């Protein structure tokens, strides 16, 4: 499979570009070959797992982000009053839990809670 992927990938004289092309093509070949042996219901889970592994390998996702994605917010969260006129109180409570925990635990969302509450009329 590896030799076939090397032969079947695009060629390039630039070493870094060639490595990226090889990696992308081999990932595609691996995906196709594994999916051939999976039931249809299992292909989505394999795709998700492969995507997560690629994101971890490229340092585009960390364990805290994955945990939040899989489990959502946890613990006691004090809900602030609903500042919107377009969300009901129950929807606001669930939305706020997500926004609050994202802002506090995931650095990429730092400040999102304040932005969302301050600019809610624009959405």
Q: What is the mean predicted local confidence, pLDDT?
A: 87
Q: Count the strands?
A: 0
Q: Which blocks of ≥5 consecutive residues have pLDDT under 50?
A: none
State the share of residues found in helices, binned by percent: 55-70%
Taken in chain order, the helices and strands follow as HHHHHH
Number of discrete domains: 2
State the separation between the terminal residues, measured CA to CA: 49 Å
User: Mind telling me the C-alpha Rg?
Assistant: 21 Å
Mass-distribution shape = elongated
The SS-based structural class is mainly alpha
Approximately how much beta-strand content do the residues carry? under 5%
The biggest sheet amounts to: none
How many helix segments? Answer: 6
Describe how the helices and strands are arranged.
Elements: H1 2-8, H2 15-36, H3 40-57, H4 63-71, H5 89-105, H6 112-118
Helix pairs in contact: 1-2
Task: Please explain how this structure is put together.
With 123 residues, the chain is mainly alpha-helical. The protein has six helices and no strands. It has helices spanning 2-8, 15-36, 40-57, 63-71, 89-105, 112-118. The radius of gyration is 21 Å and the shape is elongated.
What is this entry, summarized?
It is built from 6 helices and no strands. It is mainly alpha-helical and 123 residues long.
Characteristics:
single chain; 123 residues; mainly alpha; 2 domains; elongated
């Amino acid at each position: 499979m590896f030799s076939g992927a090397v032969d079947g990938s695009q060629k390039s004289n630039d070493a870094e570009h060639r490595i990226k092309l090889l990696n992308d093509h081999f990932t595609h070949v691996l995906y196709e070959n594994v999916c051939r042996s999976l039931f249809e219901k299992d292909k989505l889970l394999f795709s998700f797992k492969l995507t997560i592994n690629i994101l971890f390998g490229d340092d585009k996702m960390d364990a805290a982000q994955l945990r939040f994605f899989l489990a959502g917010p946890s613990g006691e969260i004090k809900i602030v009053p609903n500042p919107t006129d377009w969300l009901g109180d129950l929807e606001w409570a669930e939305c706020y839990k997500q926004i609050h925990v994202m802002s506090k635990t995931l650095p990429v969302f730092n400040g999102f809670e304040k932005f969302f509450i301050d600019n809610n009329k624009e959405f």
